[in-house]
Amino acid sequence: MSDLQPDVCVVVPVYNEEKRVKAALERVLPLPFVMEIIVVDDGSTDDSLAVLAEFSDPRLRVLESPVNRGKGAALRRGFAEATAPYVAVHDADLEYDPAEIARLLVPLRDGRADVVFGSRFIGSDEHRVLYYWHSVGNRLLTTMSNMVTNLNLTDMETCTKVFRREVIQAIEITEDRFGFEPEITAKVARRGDRIYEVGISYSGRTYAEGKKISWRDGVRAVWVIGKNAPLFNKRG
Q: What is the residue-wise DSSP string for 145-192?
C-alpha cells in the first residue's frame, strides 16, 4: 500500500499544552497517511482549547473533558471514537516526531502486525540527552513487563504506538494515567496479538519545559505490571 493512503486516526491527548499543541498539530495535519485526528482535551486549565479552536480542518475533532482524569482516560475516549483502519497515539508535547508513524505502519499494512511500538532504544535515530535515572527507570519497567508477558520489547513506556482499530477497540482500558502503557502492553500480549517494534527518534523535554510524568507514575506502573502477572501465570 502507498504511504499516501489516508488510513490512520491519530489520537492526541492534551493537558495544558497551549504552548505546544498548535505546533504539534501543524506537524500532524500535513502527513499523507492521516485520515482523522481526535484531540482529547483532558480538562486543561490554560488556553489549550482556545488554541485548538483556531483549527478548521474537517479531519480534526476536539473532545473535551470537564476535569483532568489522565492520559489513559483521554486515550480511552479517543480510541472509542476512531473510525480509521489504524489508530496511532501521539502526544502534543513535541517529544516525538509524528512523521515516523509512517515507519510503524509498514508491518501493519503488510498484514504482519496487529500492534507496533516505536522504540527509543533501538536503531540509530537522534535522541536528546537528558535524565539518566529516567532511562534506567524505563528499562527497568520494560524488563519487569517483559518478565510477566514473555515479550522482548525494548521500550514498553514509549508514547508512539499504532494499532489495528479492531484490536484497540476490543480492549478494555481501565488505567486513567500513565499506567496505560503497561496495561495495554499486558493486554495485547495476553490476546496473542502480533507485536512489532520500530526504532524512532526522541526529543525529550525537561520538567521546566512541561514534562508531567513523575516517580508516582513509575510506582503505579509497577503495580499495574504486578496486577496483570496472574493472568499470564494461568496460561498453558
A: HHHHH----S-TT-S-EEEEHHHHTTSPP---STTHHHHHHHHHHHHT
Mean pLDDT for the stretch of residues 142-167:
95
What values do phi and psi take at 171, rounded to 5?
Answer: -100, 130
Q: Which of 201, 1, 4, 198 has its CA nearest to residue 103?
A: 198
According to CATH, the topology of domain 8-233 is Spore Coat Polysaccharide Biosynthesis Protein SpsA; Chain A (3.90.550)
CA angle at 88 for the pair 137 and 82, rounded to the nearest 5°: 130
* Distance from the first to the final alpha carbon of the chain: 38
Nearest 5°: CA angle at 229, between 228 and 234?
110
Q: What is the pLDDT of residues 25-71, one digit of tens each?
A: 999 999 999 999 999 999 999 999 999 999 999 999 999 999 999 99
pLDDT above 60 for 235: no
d(CA 198, CA 103): 7
Residues facing 87 on adjacent strands: 9, 163
- Return all residues near 74 (Cβ < 8 A) that are at least 6 apart: 13, 14, 15, 40, 42, 65
Contact between residue 156 and residue 182 where contact means Cβ atoms under 8 Å apart: yes
Compute how many other C-beta atoms are within 10 angstroms of the C-beta atom of residue 8: 27
